[in-house]
Specification:
about 130 residues; alpha/beta; 2,3-Dihydroxybiphenyl 1,2-Dioxygenase, domain 1; 8 strands
């Protein structure tokens, strides 16, 4: 059992946010599970539940657009982290933490970017020091 079933970002423009996350999440196996344009899109792994959502305040009136929300995607390899990072930068994200092995956090190969809505997705893998790329 996981502790968190899903998380949702309330965004000002679901289509714009989805354009970014369609490409970035595809690099780590993410696909659209639910597609309710223009109100909401839920992502997950093929055949699984939608664990990451983009929602308009019109879909959930109790939600308000925010920025600086931080969340992380754990992957199996540094190569997936690099693919996530490169796709995010290609889609206009700002690098907040370069995709690399960070010696101050033993075994952490990760990145944080700022998406077009101002949110801060992280992607990381836990590796042995010798496995790190770059």
């Amino acid at each position: 059992m996981g502790l968190l079933y899903h998380t949702s970002l309330c965004v000002t423009d679901v289509a714009r946010a989805a354009s970014f996350y369609d490409k970035v999440l595809a690099t780590i196996g993410g696909v659209r599970i639910w597609d309710i344009p223009p109100l909401a899109i839920g992502y997950g792994l093929e055949g699984g539940d939608a664990s990451f959502w983009l929602q308009s305040p019109d879909h959930q009136p109790f939600l308000k657009p925010a920025s600086n929300c931080h969340f992380a995607f754990k992957v199996d390899t540094p190569e997936l982290v690099l693919a996530f990072y490169e796709a995010a930068l290609e889609q206009g994200a700002e690098s907040m933490l370069e995709a690399k092995l960070h010696p101050e956090m033993p075994g952490y190969f990760g990145t944080v970017v700022k998406d077009p809505e101002g949110h801060l997705p992280e992607c990381f893998a836990i590796v042995k020091e010798a496995e790190g790329t770059g």
